[in-house]
């Protein structure tokens, strides 16, 4: 690949040149010869003027494939839609996969959408309208309605004829779904097993009825888990009464897995890592809201320390261990947060009850806190030659870690149960929260011990 | 699916019952009727005795499919291998996909491996031996050698005959690769386009020569990126002289994407989130090494504060802002760490030079630090009615954030350039490191300002 990558800028400039000099045939030959993903990258990189020229040179059908392959989660579609004539645009949407068309049309305002719909084929509009009803991040919102279906009392030969006739339009032809006359899903046959069967075998003799399928309202994480576990290329989506509605294909699931991982990761760090090519002011603008919010939460910790000012005046040695205790408890809280968020996102039937989760995290916190507490007790006692000071710091560390562990684990679980996205409880948030409780614990315990070491 | 999930425990118990009461025919019928993934879950859940019985009831071929579907990254294979007879075991490996067989046999010690090899078919052993040579986490280590190849001067009809004859063994038949007589890769045809073409068309007229392919040594992240961008089901792997060696299939790539995301995430939190079902002592054992290591790093910060003890004795108000400054700088460092690690892992041709990366992060740190510094200056000045104290805290905050930002960004980039895994520089590590620099900055600046506010 490396050759191609090194020269891709030259290829692009050559394409620009052909467009500007109006060498239509040469442009079409070279442009359409590229993989559709590369075509879409060129399209996005062209200038406004070049794109206007492009619409003269390519058919709506050719543009529809480009639109199908652009990830509009990451690209703002608006400026592109506005420069295309309504007739051309509706022809594009007519040719696109209905799931992708629905995704784009969701972002367009109602009036414009209606204008586009009036120029499109009524069947396609109905399909797209139906898809737009499904909740975001469910199987319904991911599926496409272009799948291959046959009936059970067909022969392999007649099924193959059906498949060949719709092969060009279907999103995948490698799974063939068997439906009854009410469109209920009976089973699946792989194209592979059709190919190696005799022409006159009946579909009903080949069909695999132990089919993995999902309800249209199933959340996308669950759908992704089926793909991972069962190594699927496509998964049928059915209504509550088993009517086949569409299929989710593996390429869409790769994007879901990627997005989910990205959002867990971004959440943990308290920063959105979606767009990495921003200038410093944009980047700072993205990070500052969290930082400033946490700064004010941190002010709570500061006023708490202020409240204990008399203790620090009595024994300035106490100031030494503030950051050690808040830092270590914050680290422990972040660990348990990360484990807890993962546990929610792989959320499956093995998931234990709320109570058993709490008990297990309390136990983990107690063990972690005990080991860390004893360690710091030993270190401080020897370093400062003061066992009572060591004891105060050790006990405070033990309590602070146990509480931070519990908080790191319970906050996301609680948010999840209440219907919020647990990934919002980021690592920095948990550390800053735990600063507050750790300081309170530390000074309360130090207050009890202070007469032994001043 | 929910019905099936609720009853899966009953199904399992019924299977156990059939095994124990030796109802072989009934067991085989029910067991083999399940999806191969479910079969593998049952297999792993059976007791030792039940598995020994299973080897009598199932053929090595049937077991080989179960072995193919188990993710041995997450399951320790050893105890299973040890309970199976050498003859049966070598028959399993003979039937498995060579990539999965190679993955498992890599983990077996040399002597045992040789014993298994002597009982296997020599061709399969050669295939597996070849696969074992490729570096981990490269295209070579992911690929399988079971692909479908035809030559260019064949007709569609004769190609379809080839495909049907090897359909059962090939990992995927949906892409057909066109090779010359030296086994060099010329292009690809989808099964879809073969199906809709006439029998007597020549392969050379259909072949798509703009093929996406990877070199056998290409890292797996790059391979995953091709799958994501080009929506592939399989990707051919070639040697440096374009000899076709194998294919990587999309199901293996989903596991790669998952593992990569998991390891970035685990790194950021300083805890391995691979195994979520551990008892509290195991869980604590996994978290403690990091915590204790960071505790000792934190002791550095504590001794630094100790060093500045005279400042705290003079103005105990200084203690109030220690955790605010270390916490906020730690949060900023974690954000820039997360962005930096993401940037490395999507590492591609757009990647800027080292110098421009540094300059951009310095600029982002300056902007973030300035806004946060001004905010805290205002808050502290008003709260404590002391502008000079506010100034000291504000300037310290500005410097601490700039440094933390730079460190969070440079440490992983530097580690990557030196050949270490940047994900080891976890969030907790960066916050603890930045505690040290923040405290130093804070007290140094406070020392300069102290005569104005005591």
From TrEMBL, chains A, B:
Q: Name one GO molecular function term.
A: magnesium ion transmembrane transporter activity
Membrane-crossing residues?
362-383, 389-415, 436-453
UniProt keyword list: CBS domain, Cell membrane, Magnesium, Membrane, Metal-binding, Transmembrane, Transmembrane helix, Transport
Q: Which family is annotated?
A: Belongs to the SLC41A transporter family.
State if Transferase is listed as a keyword. no
What's one Pfam family the UniProt record gives for this protein?
MgtE_N
Q: What does this protein do?
A: Acts as a magnesium transporter.
Its placement in the membrane is given as: Multi-pass membrane protein
**What PANTHER family does the database record attribute to this sequence?**
MAGNESIUM TRANSPORTER MGTE
Q: Summarize the subunit comment.
A: Homodimer.
Q: Name the major location.
A: membrane
**Where in the numbering of this chain does the CBS domain appear?**
143-206, 207-263
Q: Which InterPro entries match?
A: CBS_dom (IPR000644), CBS_dom_sf (IPR046342), Mg_transptr_MgtE_intracell_dom (IPR006668), MgtE_N_sf (IPR038076), MgtE_transporter (IPR006669), SLC41_membr_dom (IPR006667), SLC41_membr_dom_sf (IPR036739)
Q: Where in the cell is the protein located? A: Cell membrane; Membrane
What is the protein name stated in its UniProt record?
A: Magnesium transporter MgtE
